[in-house]
Structure formats: structure tokens, C-alpha cells
Amino acid sequence: MATFQAFEYSRRIGAIKNAMADAQLDLLVVTSPPNMNYSVGYDAWSFYVPQAILLPLSGEPVWVGRAIDLECARHTTVLPDDALFGYDDSYLAKGRHGADYIADIVRATFPGARQIGVEMDAPFYTAQFHARLAAALPDRTLTDADTLINWVRLTKSHAEIDVMRQAGALTDIAMQRAIDAIEPGVRQSHIAGLIYEALIDGHPDYCGDVPDFQTLPMGSRTSAPHLTWTDERFAAGSACTLELGANRFRYHAPLARTVHVGPPPTELIDLSHVVEEGLVAALAAVRPGALASDVADAWNVVIARAGIEKPSRIGYSIGLGYPPDWGERTVSLIATDRTPLQPNMVFHLMLGIWGRASSYELSETFVVTAKGASCLSGLDRRLSVK
Amino acid sequence: MATFQAFEYSRRIGAIKNAMADAQLDLLVVTSPPNMNYSVGYDAWSFYVPQAILLPLSGEPVWVGRAIDLECARHTTVLPDDALFGYDDSYLAKGRHGADYIADIVRATFPGARQIGVEMDAPFYTAQFHARLAAALPDRTLTDADTLINWVRLTKSHAEIDVMRQAGALTDIAMQRAIDAIEPGVRQSHIAGLIYEALIDGHPDYCGDVPDFQTLPMGSRTSAPHLTWTDERFAAGSACTLELGANRFRYHAPLARTVHVGPPPTELIDLSHVVEEGLVAALAAVRPGALASDVADAWNVVIARAGIEKPSRIGYSIGLGYPPDWGERTVSLIATDRTPLQPNMVFHLMLGIWGRASSYELSETFVVTAKGASCLSGLDRRLSVK
């Protein structure tokens, strides 16, 4: 069973084909796991071997992957059986490559495709994958079509936003349980375990899949944004920045909050006020037609007043995701990105200030609506003191 | 704090440099997350952006990555501060690439390096990453050094095996809790949530990190090896194949078992006996000097007698892992792999028979010792009936 109804995939494939026509492509070799899912529903933990959706400008797409994953394709895609092609494990041996098999299917199924788009910077589309594909298709032209589908994904359907709101509800449950449970003497991993349990099974009506991305630095590790937990225990004076996000049908709704055990230093309280004010200002700048940079600028005005600088981006578009990242690799909320916001785009507005003395994280995932930003979370934004 | 003591990393870097000398490389650009961890300790969830360890044949390695991850490198590597180089977020914009910055550091820090090894088929070393690096270093030769470090990783140190045994203990706890909790009416995601909680925080003395790889197909989805759970409930007559593996300091110890709710069909019982007999035969073939193919052959003799064929590999070397995979991408247990086994190699022997009528999984992670295979798990191997 694919996640959505057939017409949702038809609509998506139509939009992808329009973009392919603009780019003058006859065929797209889709290798990014979220793009494979987006186009035909494919959802399995098989992206450690070469696999692809071959999506022609005219005609129907096919799935190509490892033979033992044919059943995964039968279970999750909208494709008929005769559109699924699997290679045996001899392709995993040294000197062979799944790309050779993919090239054979391109040749057999799409003999007329001359201009072929490939996702040059997609994780798992390795240098070797590309070199083998190019060598096996010398009479075709491979062009960079990286993020072509990612840009189609940017504006969500109502069905997608419903699913993201379910993810948001799971995220809130997990975050609240974590904040409630943090206290002196509790092992950091206890909080991490609670969070995972809640992200997966915390809601009575539906479950979450395992989230892609996880950072829960605690104690002195909060100065580093992308670390996880340890088996140390919380002590008075220690902080924890929680960045987590449930995943419902692989749609993510991230959220960040900061907790401090015991009375927080004045510096951290002040920082929390500035960041919250900045968040409110950034959200207030969201409306259809505003630019991504307008959101960043609104934030920058607030923090500049407090003498803080943050050169890194403050957010990114979000939706379908697989490891290594839950971002969409399209729009960034940063002063240099002039993309106009449109209704039903979704962003993770992620305000992280990492310093060796104090670190603070606060984020919201929001949908762009005609009335402005609609946040998926309903949780209190203040620094939690335990 | 790096996971191991400094001499462990010195030993590893020495072994890598020996392999580099054999391959006539002046410099290795290490981009695979487990290889970055193996060589200098780097451990952060930052591999969705370009980053590398630059490891010269003569001299000391350096870390290059995104500036906001410099603190992650300070926290987790054995490198001094002046060996860490970070690029700002302008490199994330369209038309720019972290590879350009990495090339600048190669040029500035290793001006004499002519023969440069790159990991052509490593996940995250994308076609674009390679193209940009090659374009920015026209006076150097980039050669394929894919899996050079993976092969060094194949034989573990005692310190590594101690950590893998800790992971094995966490895995057993999670598996046992899952098997105990499966019963009619229980939501599949409830079991998944319990498993994650136990993998992370199930042991009183130490914690696990989040596992890389997860497949817990239940019910009719067991015919497909790489699916996860849903929010359906267990019912009498449904089976569940559990493949899971704790991760301690990112060393994995996977394990698979099969559970059936209610009296199992005779066909499944028979299959479980054949697979267990095959597992015992495969383990008995393990000794230093035996070939990887000998293990597969021992298994194939048993299943052939029962009229079963399994063309896919029955296992692979394992140790350090990051998404998308916990395998090491070196030795496979398959009839065509003639690698001799040596003490302190570790393998996941994974016996999965996936059929539409019945599916069965049974696995063990074992260390090659002078006396034969030493399994990390102590759990009962039989089909569990609930």
C-alpha cells in the first residue's frame, strides 16, 4: 500500500514531467530516497545499495533495485509488477555495480531516451554510481537534474500537510515527555529512550517511523550542534538542547527546545528572551509573497540589537526525508535566499545559538498559509527550568 | 573525548598509511562517516553536508567540514584545534559546494600531495562532490581508494571487540523485551517503541546510540526484508521477523529472530528447523584460515537437502556503522567470496528466507576466534510462539 491515493502520485508525476520538459529531459534517473518515495511511493530501508526510479517524459515509471527488495516495491509503490526490475547479489561483488544493471534497464525499456537527468549531488548517487552509469550509456547524455524533484516537493498537497500535522502531534508528545522527565540524577540516555519510544508509539491513533536525524547534546556537549547523548547523568547546572522530530510516513515535523537543570545563569535567560523575540519576529514576516530572506532579516534585526551574530541559516524547507537529513535541499532561510514564499510550503525555523559558555535552541515547524505562519507545535516556547 | 585511547588511533593511522603506501597514495580524502570515525574519532550527525578527513602519507591528518560542526570535531576527535578547518554556510548555496573548500585546504595544507585517493563509492561522496574536487585540483591525480580503510577495519582490536560485546548485550535485552511483549491485540509500533527504548537505555551500566538500520516487518509485510512497522495490531496467525542491532559508540551487534502469534503453520516450523540446522553448520565452518565461501557452502548443503535455494549472501563483516548501512562493505559470506577468515574479524550471519507464504529470519553476530565462532548473543534461537 502506498501512503497516498493513486491520484496524488499522478499529480506528482505530472508536475515532475512538466519540470523535465522545461529541462529538456527524456528520462530522469531518480536515486534520492525521498524522491523515489515522492514519485511512486517506494519506502524501504534499502538505499545502501544502488536503486532508482526511471521516470520517462512519456510513458510510465519503473523501479530498479536489488532483487531481494522487489517485495518492498510491491508492498509500497503504485507500480504494477511488470514495472519492477531486480538484480541478483552477484552485483554486490567487487568489480560489479548495480549501476550496470540500471543501465541495462534504461537501454531495454527506454531505448529512445537521449537526454537523461541524474541527481548529481544526491546522497547515495556516488561518484562511482555516476561513472559506471555514464560508461554504460555512452550514446546518451547525462545531465545534472539534482533537486529537480526537490523543487516540485516544496509546495505540499493538503494530504501531505495532514500527515505533517500528525507528525507534529507526535513530536509534541515526545518533547513534553522528555522535558517532564529531565531532572538531576537521570541518565541522559533515559531521556533519549523515552523520546524514541514516544516518537514511534506515543500517539493513541497512529504511529511514527524512526526519525532520520537526531541530536540531543546534553551538558557540555550542548556547544556542539550535532552530537547525541551519553550515559552521563544530569546534574544541577547542566543544560540540554533537544532537537527532535517525529516522522509519519517519513514526513518530519522537527522541534527544538532547551532545558536547564537548576536555576539558569542570567546569561542563558537573557539569550532565551532574545531568541524567542527573534522567533516571533521571524514568524511575523511569513506571508505568501514574502522572500525567504525576509524571514532571516526579521530575525537578524532582533539579534543584532542584542549584539548577537549568527551567520548560518535559520531554517530550511522540510517534508519527506530519509537519512542523512530531513531537509529538502531547496530553500534556506538566510539573507541571500530570495525565493518567494507560497501557501503550503513548510519550513523548519531553527534558531540555534551555540557558544561555549551558553547554548540555546528554539525552533518551530510552520506551514505558510494565506494568513501567515501556522506552527505544527503547540508547546510553550520558553526555556524549561527543572 | 574520542571513544578510544590515543594509541588505538595511532595504530589505526599506521595501518591506513601502510595501505596508502601500497596503493602509492600521498593523501587520502576520507569522506565515509565510519572511516572518518575510525581514523580520528569524529562522531557527529553532520554527514549530510560535505566533510572529510585529509590523511597524508607523511604528517598529521586534518578535519574539514562545516563551521558549525567545528565544536563536534573538538568534542570527538583526537585532533588538535589547528587541524580543524570549517567553511561557512555560504557554501550551502546553489552553485557553491563544500568540496571547493576542501580542495582549498588540500592545496594549502598538502601542497606536495600529487596522488590523492578518494572513496569513489562511499555514500555521501556524490558524483557532484567528486566532479567539484577534481575540477578544483587539476594538477593532482584523483584515484579510487574506495574501501581502503574498510579493509583495515576488518580485523578488530580487543578494545573494539569489548565495545561490540557491550552492543551485543544491549541487543539481547531489546530482542527479549520485544519477544516477551508481542501478543494478539498489541500494536506493532508498541513493540518498535519498546525496542528503541531498550537499544538506547536498556542496560544499567551503559547506553546505546540510535541504530542505523532498522527493519521490523510484521504481518504480511514479512515477505519484504527491508520494511518497518505500521500501526496495525498483532492477530493470531501473524508473524514478525525482527532484525535489530544496538549500537555502542557506533559499533553494531545485529540479531534476527522470528516470532509467530498463535500456533504456527507446519511449513514455518519446518523452515525454522532447516534454518537453525543451517546456522549451526555455518558457524561450525568458522575457523581462522577457512574462507568466507566455506561458511556459505556449509549453509547451502543443509538447505539444498531441504529443497531450498537462497542465491543472496548470508552475511557480511560488521563493526563501525552509520546510516545507511551497518555492514562494512568488504567481505560477504557468499559462495564466490574467497577471503580467508582471521581472528577478530566480526560477521553478521544473516539467514533470511523471504517467501510470500512463509518468511523466516535467524541471525547471529560472531567473532572469529582461534576456537571458532564466538557469538555475541546468548538468546535462544528457536521460533518464538506467542
What do these coordinates show?
Two copies of one chain form a homodimer. Chain A is α/β, with parallel strands linked by helices. Chain A has two domains: 6-151, Creatine Amidinohydrolase, Chain A, domain 1 (3-Layer(aba) Sandwich), CATH 3.40.350; 158-385, Creatine Amidinohydrolase. The first copy, chain A, is built from ten helices and 14 strands. Chain A has helices at 6-22, 33-40, 70-76, 98-109, 127-136, 148-153, 158-181, 188-201, 266-284, 292-305, and strands at 27-30, 52-56, 62-66, 84-87, 115-118, 141-144, 239-248, 251-260, 315-322, 325-332, 346-354, 359-369, 372-375, 384-385. A six-stranded mixed beta sheet of chain A has the order 4-3-2-1-5-6, with helices on both faces. In chain A, strands 10-9-11-12-13 form a five-stranded antiparallel beta sheet. In chain A, a hairpin with a 2-residue loop joins strand 12 and strand 13. The longest helix of chain A has 24 residues, at 158-181. The two termini of chain A are 44 Å apart. The mean pLDDT of chain A is 94.
Offer a quick outline of the entry.
2 copies of one chain form a homodimer. Chain A has helices at residues 6-22, 33-40, 70-76, 98-109, 127-136, 148-153, 158-181, 188-201, 266-284, 292-305; strands at residues 27-30, 52-56, 62-66, 84-87, 115-118, 141-144, 239-248, 251-260, 315-322, 325-332, 346-354, 359-369, 372-375, 384-385.
Tell me the CATH topology of the largest domain in chain A.
Creatine Amidinohydrolase
* CATH homology-level superfamily of the largest domain in chain A: Creatinase/methionine aminopeptidase superfamily
Number of structurally distinct domains of chain A: 2
Judging from the principal axes of the Cα atoms, what is the shape of chain A? globular
